[in-house]
Amino acid sequence: MTEARRPLPCPRCRTRAYTPYGVPWTRGMPARPAVSDTDGSTLICSECGNTEWWGEFFGVDLEPQEKWPIT
Ligand SMILES: [Zn+2]
Fold first, then answer.
1. 24 FRET partner, CA 20 to 30 A, in 5, 14, 30, 60?
2. Contact assessment for residue 52 and residue 43, using Cβ atoms and an 8 Å cutoff
3. What distance lies between CA 54 and its chain's CA centroid?
4. What's the pLDDT tens digit per position in 40-60?
């Protein structure tokens, strides 16, 4: 576990970021992370969390972590 004190880049899209839990959130900072359904523990940005959620809702396969820009 790294002790992040600032927003971290999302490993799934690499274009957005999330503000880790434990980091004080102030206006303008990225939203809190979502937990990826690919493994139930990887933190991703909330937009990616929504994408995975809707994908599951419509029966679309999850994008495996190998296909993410970084893992
Ligand atoms: Zn993302």
1. 14
2. no
3. 14
4. 999 999 999 999 999 988 998
